[in-house]
Design brief:
single chain; mainly alpha; 0% strand; globular
């Protein structure tokens, strides 16, 4: 229905893998880096300053967001220029969606890193948080093939909406103003806001 004779299996899996790898690398970078901030005492000194916890999280989110931006650009360039992936939509739309997923990964990394005391513990969140999303979000097989009891869990994951939007853009040529893409993007941004609020709460408890 979409694409053309030059499209192959790699082109079908590419949108999902672009979102997944951007999410994975940004989460790993953020979780480890924020943990080092705590271990080195930098976070404790910042909490002594006249700053709100929300301002502190937003500041870290902006700092890590710069690296998330670079990661998003690198992943897209590798897919398009390195692997020669065919795509149908605008690369700007792809970039916006990948950046939104990276923002979710940043906030999730900040939130979960507060529960780790060593870098090894931070890395151990990957099989708990990241791998299940890769299995359930539609990267390997479509959501329609999942058992009925697993589908609600799949729709509770941010990557599900990000992968769906990326496929709509790269395979179907839809834009950010298309209803399905817009709804998926709003869902991803809602997850980003949720994890940011959770990060503020955990930092507040640490400072209490």
């Amino acid at each position: 229905m979409h694409g053309g004779p030059r499209y192959d299996a790699l082109d079908f899996f590419a949108p999902a893998m672009v979102g997944y790898f951007a999410f994975f690398f940004v989460f790993l970078l953020t979780a480890v880096a924020f943990l080092r901030e705590r271990v080195a005492g930098t976070l404790e000194r910042l909490m002594a300053a006249p700053l709100r916890r929300s301002e502190l999280v937003v500041g870290y989110m902006a700092g890590f967001g710069l690296f998330a931006l670079l990661q998003a650009v690198a992943v897209i360039l590798v897919a398009v220029l390195g692997l020669r992936v065919h795509y149908h939509g605008a690369l700007l739309s792809v970039f916006v969606l990948v950046l939104a997923l990276a923002l979710v990964a940043v906030n999730l990394g900040i939130f979960l890193s507060t529960f780790a005391r060593t870098e090894l513990q931070a890395v151990q969140f990957i099989p708990i948080v990241i791998l299940p999303q890769g299995l359930l979000c539609g990267v390997i097989w479509p959501l329609s093939s999942l058992p009925d009891w697993l589908r609600p869990a799949a729709y509770a994951l941010p990557l599900t909406y990000g992968v769906g939007a990326l496929r709509d853009v790269m395979l179907k040529g839809q834009g950010l103003l298309t209803t399905s893409v817009r709804l998926d993007l709003l869902a991803v941004l809602a997850f980003a806001a949720l994890f940011a609020a959770l990060a503020v709460g955990t930092i507040r408890r640490q400072g209490a």
